[in-house]
Design a protein that fits this description.
CATH topology of the domain at 6-12 and 108-257 in chain B: Rossmann fold
Largest sheet of chain A: none
Distance between the termini of chain B: 37 Å
Helix content of chain A: 55-70%
Strand content of chain B: 15-25%
Oligomer: heterodimer
Distance between the termini of chain A: 64 Å
Number of strands of chain B: 20
Largest sheet of chain B: 6 strands, mixed
Strand content of chain A: under 5%
Order of helices and strands of chain A: HHEHHHHHHHHHHHHHHHH
Helix content of chain B: 10-25%
Structural class of chain A: mainly alpha
Number of strands of chain A: 1
Number of helices of chain A: 18
Number of helices of chain B: 11
Structural class of chain B: alpha/beta
CATH architecture of the domain at 6-12 and 108-257 in chain B: 3-Layer(aba) Sandwich
Shape of chain A: globular
CATH class of the domain at 6-12 and 108-257 in chain B: Alpha Beta
């Protein structure tokens, strides 16, 4: 590794100010710090610092997305061969899905990172690690049959209009991955919804509807068994079908403390409460399905674990996180059941609450302020 | 008076090696320094010139804005050098000590028989006064103010902190005399805060006239702000004064012996120190004598104070006025190949993202590497886990960055000091210089309001 280090030290001056490739400074820095943790030492404040950094943190999230990604690859193959009536084994299924999914992942990362590098250089700061997560989230919420150019266009839209116009990572209001998904949903409604996109190369005669699709048209009796939905043997977006795989990811996020358990927990509670309310009203078949079935249907679990917990776009105060999560769960099920045009309520619920999370935080902080002011008034100011 | 034990639940004890062994070496360094930069917001006015002969207790410089506050020499000797930094900032006034120290006699006295004014006058004339600091802002107390209470934290929870129960041994008389003087300075209580622990010294437990408060919990349980927040929170316009035990001793000795006796015991700590132990010297002592042949090879960071809040000095530098600790740790100026991706068996972290969390070591030889690059605020909910206050730390930091003074006040800036954010700075995944942001906010308000 010393040779590599020597080589980097040798070419580094060319990327610094006044160097031949100074326009690529951010890009060089991103690769250099990827290979080597910088030798920078503290100069003010605390002389020692925790071993953690944003790279470590974000790579934990990427690690937590591996179970749904790997399962998703297998399921893409499984659904394809099932629809075509071909008997296959585990590896054939996986290999088919792998070949289908990897290009989507590559397109998402290449498009997003290219834009990120460009903006980092323009603004003269480092490339933020946030896109390592976004770049993986986007493929996981895509239908397996999505055209690659659509992945590129929606990723570009999400990074530019979802993030960079607000000032980059840490400043954005909306979850970038969901922005990509929402863009795709509203820009190409014909291509992204219906029965066609969920199974790769589906024969026309085969029903390719997702459970939410079935429920939407009132075919509640066609919804697969809760166990199939929990395990994920159903058509759907690449990473969203298996609640089990998502729960493994949730376990990683919670043990490492990267994601807020408060948000995950309250999203689930919010979803259950809304489900129960519908059970009480019960004026149609969709409202009658047991509340907990909603947790394993569609993108609910995926959104609760990976999307709602985004620290930048979610509520930032601890009390606010309970409210924020609860309302996401509530609205997700409400939109899902009430509004047949948007079978996937989770996406809209999270984006909606992203917009309101600063307001929730504002009221939580105001409560702290008025508590403090009351204390000041009790003790006469000298 | 006694009160119930106060439990501090949030915080973090950083596991770092190099604790001082409980034995004391007496040293008599040749040089000492009076450092105006030890005091926040001070504009010094030099009184001595290079070459002057002075006695211990003679004025060296004064506060330009309140000239009755003077800073005196800890030893008798010759003014060796007046060192200035960039923009002619007065860094330190170095005094070469006589072999036999000659003290100016300020007269012995029994604090209980003196009036408040007489006590204040004695503290000011002798140069002991600057040991008393105030909150908010952590500046030297103003003699004309009357604080609502005085706080003494008799334990330090910072990494490798000195054990005041050990330092105080045999000095009950000086400590009680110092407390007697302080009792005259406030109309409120004098709080003596100790750790709820069997090793807590009888001297603290049996001090008369104070309210004794017991604390348990991780760092920052020993910080003044933590204790004030639990006992008598500061609001806008409130004022409290605070000291550490060795500073109470200096007051006590002034009344007992009539001299400016700056005797101070330092804990020499850190993984690069061969024999970490306690060293008895004077405030402002040169560090050379204790560090000589006592530091292992390699690039080292010398700190007057602890690793979280101390000041970087050189190996031939001087101890800070308020510091009871000197720490030497390795510099971390190395590149680590794919360091962010390694399992991290030997890394200390607050987070469960490293294998070391499953196989913890007793202590780690932490160095000064930042372990990453600076980023925008991203993670949430973590700062709160090491911050035992009813304050929203990230919102307060953002208010400071926005220079919104009203919002800073409303979010509780008067209740904290930069040192209370040291753990947040340590655990921050975005590697932001948080203590300097907090100091900037406090100074902004202090300058605005005075």
């Amino acid at each position: 590794m010393k040779g590599l280090r020597r080589y980097l030290d040798k070419i580094k001056p060319q990327f610094e100010k006044g160097g031949r490739y100074e326009k690529l400074q951010s890009t060089f820095d991103a690769f250099e710090t990827f290979l080597f943790v910088p030798d920078k030492v503290t100069f003010s404040g605390s002389h020692i610092r925790d071993a953690v950094d944003l790279k470590r943190t974000m790579s934990m999230v990427v690690l937590a997305m591996m179970p749904p990604l790997l399962f998703g690859m297998w399921n893409v193959g499984y659904q394809h061969y099932l629809a075509n009536g071909v008997a296959t084994d585990l590896w054939q299924n996986f290999w088919f899905g792998f070949l289908q999914v990897i290009p989507i992942v590559v397109v998402s990362y290449v498009t997003g990172l290219a834009i990120e590098f460009f903006f980092a250089q323009k603004r003269g700061h480092e490339v933020n690690e946030g896109f390592l997560v976004t770049g993986m989230l986007i493929p996981l919420v895509m239908p397996p049959d999505v055209p690659l150019w659509m992945v590129a266009v929606s990723t570009a839209f999400a990074v530019i209009f979802g993030k960079e116009v607000f000032g980059g990572t840490g400043m954005n209001i909306l979850n970038p991955a969901l922005t990509a998904r929402a863009f795709l949903f509203f820009a190409y409604p014909k291509d992204i919804s219906g029965d066609k996109v969920w199974i790769v190369d589906k024969p026309d005669a085969y029903s390719g509807a997702t459970p939410l699709g079935d429920a939407m048209v009132g075919a509640v009796d066609k919804i697969p068994s809760p166990l199939d939905m929990f395990l994920g043997f159903i058509p759907g977006s690449i990473g969203e079908t298996s609640t089990l795989a998502i729960m493994i990811g949730a376990f990683i996020l919670l043990v490492t403390g990267v994601a807020s358990w408060r948000i995950m927990f309250s999203v689930v509670i919010g979803g259950l409460v809304m489900g129960w309310i519908f059970n009480l009203v019960a004026i149609n078949d969709y409202m009658r399905i047991p509340a907990w079935h909603h947790l394993v249907m569609g993108g609910f679990a995926f959104g609760a674990v990976y999307m709602a917990t985004d620290p930048v776009t979610g509520a930032q105060t601890l009390k606010g996180q309970y409210i924020y999560g609860f309302l996401i769960g509530l609205f997700a099920i409400m939109v899902r059941v009430f509004n047949p045009a948007y079978p996937e309520g989770m996406m809209l619920a999270i984006l909606f609450m992203n917009v309101f999370s600063p307001l929730i935080d504002h009221y939580v902080v105001q409560a702290n302020i008025s508590r403090r002011r009351k204390r000041w008034q009790k003790v006469p100011v000298k | 008076m006694m009160s119930a034990t106060i439990k501090v639940r949030k915080g973090l004890d950083i596991k770092i090696v190099g604790e001082a062994a409980k034995n004391t070496v007496t040293i008599s360094p040749r040089t000492y320094a009076c450092k105006p930069i030890d005091f926040i917001g001070l504009f010094p006015k030099v009184i001595v010139q290079e070459g002057d002969r002075i006695k211990a207790g003679a004025p060296v410089y004064a506060d330009k804005k309140q000239e009755q506050i003077i800073f005196t020499a800890p030893v008798s000797g010759t003014v060796h050098e007046i060192r200035r930094g960039p923009k002619r900032v007065l860094l330190e006034i170095v005094i070469e000590a006589d072999s036999q120290i000659e003290y100016i006699d300020f007269g012995k006295a029994e604090p209980n028989s003196l009036s408040r004014d007489q006590i204040v006058d004695k503290l000011l004339k002798s140069g002991v006064w600057p040991v008393i600091r105030q909150r908010p802002f952590s500046v030297i107390a103003k003699p004309g103010d009357i604080p609502k209470a005085i706080f003494i934290s008799a334990f330090d929870t910072n990494p490798l902190a000195p054990d005041f129960n050990y330092i105080i041994e045999g000095q009950e008389k000086a400590f009680q005399t110092g407390i007697d003087a302080l009792l005259k300075l406030t109309t409120g209580k004098v709080h003596l805060n100790v750790q709820d622990h069997p090793a807590t010294s009888r001297i603290f437990l049996e001090t008369r006239g104070v309210q004794l408060n017991r604390f348990t919990g991780p760092h920052p349980a020993g910080n003044i702000s933590t204790q004030v927040s639990r006992l008598d929170p500061i609001g806008k316009g409130d004022l409290i004064w605070y000291l550490r035990p060795q500073e109470v001793l200096m007051i006590g000795r002034l009344f007992l012996s009539g001299t400016y006796d700056a005797t101070r015991i330092f804990a020499l700590t850190g993984s690069m120190v061969n024999k970490p132990a306690y060293y008895k010297s004077l405030a402002g002592a040169s560090l050379q004598d204790m560090l000589n042949n006592n530091v292992t090879g390699g690039a080292a960071r010398y700190i007057s104070g602890n690793v979280l809040t101390g000041t970087q000095v050189t190996s031939d530098g001087f101890a800070g006025f308020y510091d009871s600790q000197v720490t030497v740790i390795p510099e971390g100026d190395y590149h680590e190949f794919l360091g962010w991706a390694l399992p991290g068996l030997t890394k200390f972290s607050f987070y469960n993202m490293f294998l070391s969390r499953m196989l913890p070591k007793k202590g780690y030889a932490l160095d000064t590497n930042i372990h990453g690059g600076e980023r925008a605020f991203v993670m949430t909910g973590k700062y709160e886990q090491v911050f035992p206050f009813d304050i929203y730390p990230m919102q307060l930091l953002k208010a400071i960055l926005a220079e919104d003074i009203d919002l800073m006040e409303n979010l509780g800036i008067y209740e904290i000091d930069a040192e209370d954010f040291a753990l947040i700075e340590f655990i921050d995944t975005s590697k932001i210089e948080i203590q300097s942001i907090v100091r900037k906010g406090l100074e902004m308000i202090r300058i605005e309001t005075t």
